[in-house]
Design brief:
290 residues, mainly alpha, globular
Length: 290
């Protein structure tokens, strides 16, 4: 683990790519296409929302937080007419199984994967999910039997637990869904504002209105770049997100947390080397440093 960042952030950078296999691996799209779902975004919204049951568009929009409501409404609730949440939970687990076996190769049956699964599950079972609907919904699912799927499932619980906390941090900072994107893109160099706007389906006018509001707060300059206040504000959001995500790692303890990081590093590297997770990506994730 990097020594210059909190354990919660260092571990997120290692387990998030394993969770993200669900949405980027072609196996998931093949599985949801077989169920009759239409397109990649219906696959994404259906698979991610499935732990909630047949959720409404309003609920998915609120919990996922940063997608344009109209984008969500094109997929939800129609997705439940093609496949039930139970069918999609089974499909995403089967797809994760196929994708991870392909990506990890011979390592799938290794003692390292089994140990990583045990440690990750211990961390996931230590999450405090009160007030965290996505984390709670995933934590309530039955555990898989195979170690590589336990690792994927634990990564998913930890990711959604952290995501719920991130939404709380954004709300605390007074950043609405689009403000979150605009302020984040203003501090990034690897992912353009236009790419973020297009990816989440916000219009140019809506983006400009958010920029105006952040400019009035002193977070952006006249060119849309982050000011000192904007940089400080975003740093506070990330710091609060880390604080809200630290309980699993406190419970796991520094020795076991470092051991899990050591075990995850080559597995996360394999995800990137397989081309599963694009670089750049919406989260600013990159392959682990050597």
């Amino acid at each position: 683990m990097a020594t210059n960042q909190p354990a919660a952030r260092a571990m997120w950078r290692l387990y998030e790519p394993i969770h993200a296999i669900t949405y980027f691996a072609p196996e998931t799209r093949a599985a949801t296409d077989a169920l009759g779902l239409r397109g990649g975004w219906m696959s994404y919204f259906g698979c991610r929302a499935a732990p909630l049951g047949p959720a409404s568009a309003a609920l998915v929009t609120a919990l996922f937080y940063n997608f344009h409501p109209a984008m969500v409404a094109r997929a939800v609730p129609d997705v439940w007419g093609y496949a039930s949440p139970e069918q999609l939970l089974a499909a995403r687990l089967e797809a994760a199984d196929d994708a991870i076996c392909r990506i990890f190769g011979a390592a799938i049956a290794s003692d390292a994967v089994a140990e990583a699964a045990t440690l990750a599950r211990t961390a996931a079972e230590a999450t405090d999910n009160a007030g965290r609907p996505m984390g709670a919904a995933n934590a309530a699912l039955p555990w898989a039997d195979q170690p590589h799927l336990v690792l994927w499932q634990a990564s998913t619980v930890l990711r959604e637990h952290r995501g719920d906390g991130h939404v709380a941090a954004l709300l605390t900072a007074g950043l609405g869904p689009l403000d979150a994107h605009v302020s984040f893109s203003a501090v990034r160099t690897d992912w353009s504002a236009a790419a973020v706007r297009t990816y989440r389906h916000w219009s140019e006018l809506e983006w400009a209105e958010s920029e105006d509001g952040l400019r009035e707060r002193g977070w952006l300059d006249e060119h849309g770049r982050a000011t000192a206040a904007g940089l400080h504000g975003r740093a506070n959001v990330e710091q609060l997100t880390d604080r809200l995500a630290e309980k699993p790692w406190i419970e796991l303890g520094p020795v076991r947390t470092r051991r899990l990081a050591e075990l995850l590093r080559p597995l996360t590297t394999a995800v990137f080397e397989a081309g599963t997770l694009p670089v750049p990506n919406p989260w600013g994730l990159a392959p682990p440093d050597d």
